[in-house]
Amino acid sequence: MLDVSALRVAYGESEVLHGLGFSVRPNEIVAILGRNGMGKTTLMKALMGIVPARSGRISVGEAEVTGLESYERVARGIAYVPQGRMIFSTMTVEENIETGLAVSGRRRVPEDIYELFPVLLDMKQRRGGNLSGGQQQQLAIARALATDPKVLLLDEPTEGIQPSIIRDMGRALKRIRDERGLSIFVSEQVLSFALDIADRVLVIENGEIVHEDARAAVDEAKIASFLSV
Ligand SMILES: Nc1ncnc2c1ncn2[C@@H]1O[C@H](COP(=O)(O)OP(=O)(O)OP(=O)(O)O)[C@@H](O)[C@H]1O
Fold first, then answer.
1. 11 alpha carbon to ligand 1 midpoint, in Å?
2. Mind telling me which NCBIfam families this protein's record contains (predicted)?
3. Residue nearest to atom 2 of ligand 1 (CA)
4. Percent of the chain with pLDDT over 70
5. What range does the domain containing 180 cover?
6. H or E stretch including 32?
7. Residue with CA closest to ligand 1 atom 30
8. pLDDT at 85
9. If you measure from the C-alpha of residue 122 to the centroid of ligand 1, how many angstroms do you get, rounded to a whole number?
10. Beta bridge partners of 202
11. What are the residue ranges of helices labelled H in the chain?
12. Pocket test for ligand 1, best of 8, 15, 17, 40 (most atoms within 8 A of CB)
């Protein structure tokens, strides 16, 4: 569903992603692990069209999106939950989710979004800025789902979030995969979370994918060695 090949991205003269490639199938969660500064956020931004690709190809299903603007990629089925969540703090929970609806052509927030994140139903009229970090993360995922995507990108969703909410989020992401058949691509530094949710794990180091394992045959010690400083 999401196919990336030979992707190169640079900031000015400094190349950060050196021709990397991978795919995420429908109904699959792929986690990309890597230490700070290895290029995870840059990769997410390049997939979303926030930073331009120098070369390479990104496609969603049959549609190539490489040269498209971010909003055009959203229309082709990519949704993005950025690092730090970036919800609208002065808007209510419901209004935040509604900002995703324009893309899907729906008028009301589908009930199944609140089923995935019941806490958001209880807090529908609260301002986004008054939610806890974990609740804001759930809101950011809910808003992304309101666009009815085929591919969901999440950049370090566990960052700064307490363990019980991380478990809830893991359960919700697996439900989203199973019930909606989405392709989910998530960047992480927390190995336990990646192993809990992912069907496949990639490791990024200095802008290249240096290791890949199916979850069923994961070499945990090897992956941990990439993550230790
Ligand atoms: N706007 C920018 N201009 C120049 N260099 C940048 C810019 N953003 C990131 N970089 C550099 O690109 C490299 C990859 O950064 P990136 O943020 O993608 O890493 P990351 O793996 O997501 O790390 P983190 O976990 O800290 O978010 C780093 O060397 C970083 O300094």
1. 9
2. urea_trans_UrtE (TIGR03410)
3. 11
4. 100
5. 2-84+150-227
6. strand 28-33
7. 37
8. 78
9. 37
10. 32, 212
11. 40-48, 70-75, 93-98, 101-104, 111-116, 118-122, 133-145, 163-180, 191-197, 220-227
12. 40
Amino acid 43 reads L
Q: Is the pLDDT of residue 91 over 80?
A: yes
Distance 39 CA to ligand 1 centre (A): 6
- Residue nearest (by alpha carbon) to ligand 1 atom 12: 16
Q: What is the count of structural domains for the chain?
A: 1
What whole-number distance in Å separates Cα of residue 44 and Cα of residue 83? Answer: 10
91 is a domain residue: no
Closest CA to ligand 1's atom 5:
11
The C-alpha torsion from 211 through 214 and 216 to 222, rounded to 10°, is: 0
Statement: residue 228 has pLDDT above 90? no
111 or 185, which is more confident?
A: 185
Strands 2-11 and 63-64: unpaired
User: Ligand 1 centroid to 37 CA: how many Å?
Assistant: 5
Mean pLDDT for the stretch of residues 162-181: 92
Does some domain include residue 23? yes
Query: Residue 158: pLDDT above 80?
Result: yes
33 close to 227: Cβ distance less than 8 angstroms = yes
Q: Whose CA is nearest to atom 28 of ligand 1?
A: 37
Cα 107 to averaged position of ligand 1 atoms, centre (Å): 37
In a domain, 113, yes or no: no
125 occurs within a structural domain: no
Reported as a single tens digit per residue, the pLDDT across 95-133 is: 999 988 877 777 777 788 999 999 999 999 999 999 998
pLDDT value at residue 84? 84
